[in-house]
Amino acid sequence: MTDDSSVKxxxxxxxxxxxxxxxxxxxxxxxxxxxxxxxQTHGVDLEEAVRRLHVVRKFSSEPVSxxxxxxxxxxxxxxxxxxxxxxxxxIVVRDHETLVRLSAVGQFAGHLAGGVLAIALVTxxxxxxDSPLSVMWDLGRAAQxxxxxxxxxxxxxxxxxxxxxxxxxxxxxxxxxxxxEYILNIGHPGADGTLTRPLRAGGRLTLPEVVFxxxxxxxxxxx
Length: 223
Ligand SMILES: Cc1cc2nc3c(=O)[nH]c(=O)nc-3n(C[C@H](O)[C@H](O)[C@H](O)COP(=O)(O)O)c2cc1C
What we know:
alpha+beta; two-stranded antiparallel sheet; 8 helices
């Protein structure tokens, strides 16, 4: 589903799998068709996807289909944002030469040269005096939507942080009042099993390390 006409279709046919548009249309989540626990994205359980998601830096040469690309972009634009301002643009890059040039925009952007599809995430300048922090919060939500939908469709991804902003601007030609801090590299994993392998042991802090109850430092206890 990539356009809002499909949303109307879903509303008329509630037996179809629930999606975010249905949830925000006010349909009760107790409706079996909208039960969040039964909510599957292309056969991948949402909680499982969140738990297993990790970055992929090596991609095969298989192109990303237009269907997958549009679903990923659509997931990005559906993210909620502060005051619904939607301060983002997405520049899709598939040209090999451009990907190679972009691989020089950051110290850890080399993986872009071996990819087939990049999406540059463009915002207003987050360092501008009047720029609220929510610009980057919102962008992170859009990016995570894209990454999860890519994952659900069997595609891996990894961000590249932009350090050389003038080089990036000269390649992608966005205006002076825009900024690109991150470029998402998305593609079919270069090796079998990359998506299904478990996270590295110790790859994430444990709950007690990051969660407090009621006030800083007090552990959370659950029954
Ligand atoms: C804001 C942000 C910027 C990142 N920038 C880069 C980058 O420039 N190059 C890169 O290879 N990985 C980058 N990453 C990927 C992180 O290194 C990766 O998410 C982290 O090491 C955890 O890896 P895992 O998800 O595979 O466990 C970035 C991730 C985030 C969230």
